[in-house]
Amino acid sequence: MWFAKRIAMSLLLVWMVATMAFGAIHIVPGDPAEIMLSEGGFAPDPSAVAALREELGLDRPLLTQYGDWVRGLVRGELGHSLLDQEPVGELIGRRLPRTLELILVATLFAALVGIPLGVLAAVRRGSLLDRCLNGFAALFDGMPVFVIATLLILVLARQLGWVSTGGYVPFAQNPAEHIRLLLMPSIAIGLGFAAVVLRMTRAAVLDTLNRDFVRTARSKGAAPLRILVRHVLRNALMPVITVVALHMGAMLGGTVLTEFVFNWPGISSMMVDAVNSRDYPVVVGTLFVIASLFVALNLAVDLLYGLIDPRVRA
């Protein structure tokens, strides 16, 4: 019953987000037909605008458009782009893997950097190393992504010439160049993420080190490394995993600036272009997919907690 309730609540949340997105994008000033027909800054002919609105179905009542969109959603269809009539699902299917790739590499970087440094800071609590690592975490946690991205371009690309300033090459076309272009935007996102993981890991390890079972293991003469690996980390990493999962969901909608700075053709940059051109189906479909993935990550964490700890289900 608990699992069914969580799944039902997640589906309801996704529907609410999609409905709000549908209403919000139609409230934004600007007519897609006028934008499509505007050339050189001249106002288009009103009759041509009216004809295009009728052709695109924008002259129908908003509730009718919403009903058609919901019926299409039930059938697994996200509509067609107003600009080129291409299925929105196909547009998202091409762009989404690129954004997910960016997020997964950034998450891997954050975990590989943040967790070991967080454990080290907790073990050496109060030392100069601990203060330096806390300073690193505070610096990058509060630094905007576009600032980090700009610094990486100036240092790694302009000064040292190690990587390109940006762009995209498919992996199948040139694997080495694809990885080179992927590293900088992933690190730009991952540095702030690593700071969050570091601070969360440090706090969780410090809390676990003061537990009774750790003191019992010490009294029995267990080796410090064995205590740290088998007793402390196994209990301290659960809240860290939760933070990582939730932050991954937040990054789905937070890669806009990174994709723009590094010219990475992901789903976020596509959504910005769609908002500028008032391409309603693309904007709503993209927000629906992002919200679904975010809610799915939250649901997975909730269900995992429920399986591990029966008290959560109660």
UniProtKB/TrEMBL annotation:
Pfam families: BPD_transp_1, BPD_transp_1_N. SUPFAM superfamilies: MetI-like. It is found in: Cell membrane. Its main location: membrane. Residues 96-305 form the ABC transmembrane type-1 domain. The keyword Lipid metabolism does not apply. InterPro entries: BPD_transp_1_N (IPR045621), MetI-like (IPR000515), MetI-like_sf (IPR035906). It is a multi-pass membrane protein. It comes from the Bacteria. This is ABC transporter permease. It comes from Roseomonas alba. The lineage of its organism: Bacteria, Pseudomonadati, Pseudomonadota, Alphaproteobacteria, Acetobacterales.
